[in-house]
Amino acid sequence: MPYRNNYANFKEIKTQTITMDQKDREGQSKKAKLFIRLDKHAQFDENYANFEKIRAENDAKKKEAEVTKQ
Known about the structure:
Strand 1 (8-21) and strand 2 (28-40) form a beta hairpin. Helix content is 37%, strand content 39%. By secondary structure, the protein is an alpha+beta fold.
């Protein structure tokens, strides 16, 4: 299943219990840690290039608006 904008595909999700040292007192505590693995979408490079183009256009418009205000 591709994610929004086709940047990645979901591969795997899992949880693990890890033991952590507590800083404020002696002892250890257990915490859940979530691991999510994604694969690069086949159209990632194309989509990212399009994103960069849109960002550059938006930056140019923003600079133009700032110059107009002054």
